[in-house]
Amino acid sequence: MIAAIGAVASNGMLGLDGWLPWDIPEELAYFERTVAGAALVIGRLTYDSMEVVPPDSFVVSRQPGLSLRPGCVQVESVEAGLLAASATGKDVFVIGGASVYEAAWPWCRRFYLTRIEMPFAGDARFPEGIPLDRWRVISEVEKTYRERKSGLGVVCRFLQYEQDNPRPLR
């Protein structure tokens, strides 16, 4: 199955200076548990921000001569990344950034999206072109965690969206 996973603040922000605008360890742990053992499709900027990148990670970049960690493969398009990741036989997760989400959503059966119910400053917005309002919500869990930068409690809504007819890979 092809899925995407991400998180977005109440004001649409999903990134700041190459990382997350918030510091909520439990939300990051949820992401790590969910994608464990999967093949990943990653934009180059998201890849650069990651301390640990598992094998079977496919990095979307047209930058020639990109040096990648062992087990990672450069691909020229999101579709090429999805094809290569699917060929591993593992579940596939698209993990960002914004332009990769926007290009990948037609192929995704599911979108695991954490809605962080607080605004945050950021420099990367969740793509408005993804029509999640037309997808079914198949799971929703709400938890409150402490955001470590502000010390405030913040509601995190862990949603799973599903679309009925994702585009087939060629």
Produce the secondary structure layout.
Elements: E1 2-9, E2 13-15, H1 25-35, E3 39-43, H2 44-49, E4 57-60, E5 72-75, H3 78-86, E6 92-94, H4 98-104, E7 110-116, E8 124-125, E9 136-146, E10 153-162
Parallel strand pairs: 1-6, 1-7, 3-4, 3-6, 4-5
Antiparallel strand pairs: 2-8, 7-10, 9-10
Summary, kept brief:
The chain is α/β, with parallel strands linked by helices. It has helices spanning 25-35, 44-49, 78-86, 98-104, and strands at 2-9, 13-15, 39-43, 57-60, 72-75, 92-94, 110-116, 124-125, 136-146, 153-162. It has a single domain (2-162), classed as 3-Layer(aba) Sandwich (Dihydrofolate Reductase, subunit A), CATH 3.40.430.
The number of E-state strands comes to 10
The overall pLDDT average reads 96
Taking the alpha carbons of the first and last residues, their distance comes to 15 Å
Portion of residues within helices: 10-25%
Principal-axes geometry comes out as globular
Walkthrough of the structure:
This protein has four helices and ten strands; from the N terminus they run E-E-H-E-H-E-E-H-E-H-E-E-E-E. The model has no long low-confidence stretch (mean pLDDT 96). It is an alpha/beta fold and 170 residues long. The chain is globular and about 45 Å long. The strands form two sheets. Strands 5-4-3-6-1-7-10-9 form an eight-stranded mixed sheet, sandwiched between helices. Strands 2-8 form a two-stranded antiparallel ribbon. It has a single domain, classed as Dihydrofolate Reductase, subunit A (3-Layer(aba) Sandwich), CATH 3.40.430.10. The chain starts with a strand and ends in an 8-residue tail after the last strand.
